[in-house]
Design goal:
Helix content is 43%, strand content 25%. It is an alpha+beta fold. The protein has six domains: 57 residues; 99 residues, Beta-Lactamase (2-Layer Sandwich); 129 residues, PAS domain (Beta-Lactamase), CATH 3.30.450.20; 104 residues, 2-Layer Sandwich (Beta-Lactamase), CATH 3.30.450; 158 residues, 2-Layer Sandwich (Alpha-Beta Plaits); 247 residues, TIM Barrel (Alpha-Beta Barrel). The C terminus is likely disordered. This is EAL domain-containing protein.
């Protein structure tokens, strides 16, 4: 039966009162003692008084509830409406009985399934939950409301009271306000006390020159503007009218200021009124409205405008064609180094090179003929023989049909030009090595390959072997020093026979012509390998770095820079795969390998969407008893063309393309779902181990993802084990440590997979809150006969024992290996000796056959 808000007439007290009435009537016939009758009467009177008081409380509650002008609902913790006031009945336009006893969705059918989650969370913290939603009336019409929900207890049960305030009128007022701001031709910007832009209307965007979608806040950075008052005097930030309106809490009306936007060399004038906006205390303004109009046109012919141009180092000029007179402002004369002012345009441009004089003369003739304006950047030689650059802008007076007057500005842009040249060089140069950067080499390579006389270009793609290991272990400072030293040695080896660029982190590119010397690319590659063969030193540490080099030649291996580099890259990877410290030329066979890789990546990207992945589960067993203690989830790919593919066929591709993050997320979710299915089938909690890619670990908040999945499937943390590669050992960043700590706090098991194959950084291993190690099958397969593998297994076992960590051996395939591992003290193992990866149903049957009992402690 649906729970309702209690009615006093249906309460236990009322039932007891009716029972006492019946007893009194019976006492008249039963000749009960007087004392008993008196006691019954007193009890009846007390209960009657209680009922009257309860009814009075109910009436007061009802009066208070109905006195609230906004809809108020009393709601059970599960979302059932228990009561509704009169305002709610009127607002929703339906009888109370159609609402009371129904779920809250009857008032808002658009609520998501889990909408009560954040409400419960806020109420459990003692907070009020506020949200804006759209409720529905009986006729299906909607209206916006702001709902405030608070919690309380009634007779030991949690309840909620929700007050819904109709926002329709506010929305209408806001719509009219926005329409007004968007339609007026006065710029309006609202600032807060930190001068952050809260809002700006379209007229403001136009006035300050903002493009659609551009941030007004970024455009109004104080450092990008020079602000002057009406007399051309500079204003500090504290003297800006907007700042003063905030500081003094007063309206600053009709103030004319000049704005010079430094990045675009743009000068404009505005008349601005600033109105402070006060909060409820009425003392301190929290915001200020700046309302302004562009008055640049009115100021253009004013002497104050000329003074402001001088402040911004912009000079003015005017050529009166009728009188054949040229006028320069003082600032223009200073820029050109001309005193007195030249009397003709020919005299003005005499200091420019012949090509620039011709450009300016053409621009002026075109302006005279068809109007408009011109904007030129010209080189110029001052009278003191100092070279400079000037920006010259000219335009015809639009009110003069005969173009008798041409006016404009002059600006010294020498400093900017020098800065641009410096930036151009910087933009082409890698700052660490001083070589060309990626963009520059692409431009140069394209230019050479487009030249019909230089189509025979070779590219050497150079990748430093083991660079990342050194960079991670010794630090970025050592890595940077190594890159700089390697770049210097490569430059020495190339010896001017080609262009050299740093193409990526530890990748370099050499582009050279080979028409005159066909063997040049191979000779340069050999010289680079020889130059890198000598040991490098860093802080008294000595280490060796080799390189893998791929060579591709145009036009045979590519007629565009991208294809040529791509093929050189493929050749480099083939060289690295075959043997490091070598070079490899691109071949048609490599082209096919590249095509196969592309095919694999394309199909891999679609595999998850097509449902082609599935998981198998390999038992992890107690080596002593052979009983299953947990399982490792292993991914398989069932492709419609190639059949079932093991991870070693596609995981490396997924790591390269970044698809491993998406695939890893699918594996984690599917493993949790399967663990929940096994639990629901009566098998209890089977701990499932899942491999987590390093990219997946650093690319998302893993702890939050795991917490969400455990909650979704109702699993304890002990049901999940995460296996990480040794690469995470060197990541002692705060986020890494936080993720591990949060996962461990949830009860999730944390294991380092294939321990001993990679970094094996014991210093980092000691700091991470992990539970165990997995002994790589690379070492297990050699025991007990291979002495090196035996030594490694003993070392790893000793490390695990000394640090109090669990240990699981992978790849156990023979009884001799099991016996060796038992003698070594390894408690848990997995491998084909016990079972391959099993389908979920097969794994469940194995569990049932041996009477599985969860044994989390075995790990």
């Amino acid at each position: 039966m649906t729970e309702r808000w209690p009615d006093p007439a249906q309460s236990p007290a009322a039932d007891l009162l009716r029972t006492l009435d019946a007893l009194e009537r019976a006492s008249d016939d039963a000749a009960l003692p007087e004392a008993t009758r008196t006691l019954l009467g007193q009890a009846r009177d007390a209960l009657l008084a209680t009922l009257e008081e309860t009814e009075s409380e109910r009436q007061r509650y009802r009066a208070l509830l109905d006195a609230v002008p906004d809809p108020v609902s009393i709601i059970a913790w599960d979302g059932t409406v228990l009561d509704l006031n009169t305002a709610g009945v009127a607002a929703y336009r339906r009888p109370r009985e159609e609402i009371v006893g129904k779920p809250i969705e009857v008032l808002n059918p658009d609520l998501p399934k889990d909408h009560l989650g954040p409400v419960w969370a806020a109420l459990n913290r003692g907070e009020t939950y506020v949200v804006e939603v759209t409720n529905m009336r009986a006729d299906g019409s909607r209206f916006p409301v702001e709902v405030h929900t608070a919690g309380f207890e009634y007779r030991g049960d949690k309840r909620m009271v929700a007050v819904a305030r109709d926002l329709s009128q506010r929305w209408q007022a806001e719509s009219r306000y926005r329409l007004l701001l968007e339609s007026i031709d006065v710029g309006v910007i609202l600032f807060d006390r930190e001068m952050h832009v809260i809002s700006a209307n379209p007229a403001a965007y136009r006035a300050i020159g903002a493009e659609p979608g551009q941030s007004v806040q970024n455009l109004l950075r104080p450092g990008d503007w020079k602000v002057v008052d009406a007399r051309g005097r500079p204003l500090s930030f504290r003297d800006w009218p907007t700042t003063q309106a905030l500081d003094y809490g007063q309206v600053i009306s009709n103030t004319v200021i000049g704005l010079y936007y430094i990045p675009d060399q743009r000068m404009s004038w505005i008349s601005v009124t600033n109105v402070p906006v006060f909060e409820t205390d009425g003392v301190t303004p929290e915001y200020v409205f700046a309302m302004f109009s562009d008055v640049t046109t009115l100021k253009r012919d004013n002497v104050l405008f000329d003074r402001a141009q001088g402040l911004a180092h912009i000079g003015g000029w005017e050529w009166d064609r009728g009188r054949q007179r040229l006028y320069l402002t003082h600032e223009a004369q200073r820029i050109l180094g001309r005193e007195p002012s030249p009397q003709s345009v020919d005299a003005l441009i005499a200091g420019a090179p012949a090509s620039d004089r011709a450009r300016l003369r053409t621009a002026i003739d075109r302006l005279i003929e068809s109007g408009g304006s011109f904007d030129l950047e010209l080189q110029y030689m001052r009278d003191d023989q100092q070279p400079c650059w000037v920006r010259m802008i000219g335009e015809a007076d639009t009110a003069d049909p005969g173009v008798s007057r041409i006016v404009g500005t002059l600006q010294d842009i020498t400093e900017r030009k020098h800065a641009e040249e410096s930036l151009r060089v910087q933009a082409r140069t890698d700052p660490l090595t001083g070589l060309l950067n990626r963009d520059a080499i692409l431009v140069e390579l394209d230019r050479r390959m487009q030249d019909p006389a230089n189509t025979e270009v070779a590219v050497l793609y150079i990748d430093l072997d083991r660079f990342k290991v050194i960079n991670d272990v010794l630090g970025h400072a050592a890595g940077d020093e190594l890159l700089a030293s390697a770049a210097q040695r490569i430059s020495t080896a190339v010896d001017g026979e080609g262009l050299i660029a740093r193409f990526g982190g530890d990748e370099f590119l050499v582009a050279c012509q080979y028409a005159d010397a066909p063997e040049r690319p191979e000779r340069i590659a050999a010289a680079i390998l020889q130059a890198l063969s000598e040991s490098f030193r860093f802080d008294n540490e000595e280490f060796t770095i080799t390189a893998s080099i791929g060579i591709a030649r145009s036009p045979d291996d590519g007629v565009r820079p991208q294809s040529l580099i791509q093929n050189a890259d493929a050749a480099m990877y083939d060289s690295k795969r075959r043997s490091r410290n070598a070079w490899q030329a691109f071949t048609p066979a490599l082209a096919q390998t590249q095509a196969d890789r592309l095919w694999m990546e394309t199909h891999l990207r679609r595999a998850a969407d097509n449902g082609e992945f599935h998981l198998v589960y390999q038992p992890q067993v107690d080596l002593q008893s052979g009983r299953i203690v947990s399982a490792e989830a292993l991914i398989r790919w069932q492709n419609h063309l190639l059949g079932e593919l093991r991870p070693d066929r596609f995981i490396s591709h997924a790591e390269t393309t970044g698809d491993i993050v998406r695939i890893g997320g699918w594996v984690l979710r599917e493993a949790c779902r399967q663990a929940a299915d096994w639990r629901n089938a009566g098998l209890g909690i089977v701990r499932v181990a899942v491999n987590v890619s390093y990219r997946q670990f650093v690319g998302e908040d893993l702890a939050d993802t795991v917490r969400r999945l455990l909650g979704e499937f109702g699993l304890p943390g002990e049901a999940l084990e995460l296996e990480f590669t040794e690469r995470v050992l060197i990541e002692d960043a705060p986020d890494t440590l936080r993720n591990f700590a949060e996962l461990r706090e949830m009860g999730v098991m944390l294991t380092i997979d294939d321990f001993g194959e990679g970094y094996s950084a014991l210093n980092y291993l000691r700091r991470l809150p992990i539970h165990g190690l997995k002994l790589s099958q690379l070492f297990v397969e050699g025991v007990p006969h291979n002495h090196s593998d035996v030594a490694v297994c003993q070392a790893v076992s000793g490390i695990a024992s000394s640090l109090g960590l669990g240990l699981v051996a992978e790849g156990v395939e023979s009884e001799a290996q099991r016996q060796f591992l038992l003698r070594l003290g390894v408690p848990v193992g997995q491998g084909f000796l016990f079972a391959p990866g099993l389908k979920p149903d097969e794994f469940a049957r194995r569990l049932l056959q041996e009477g599985y009992r969860p044994a989390a402690a075995a790990h």
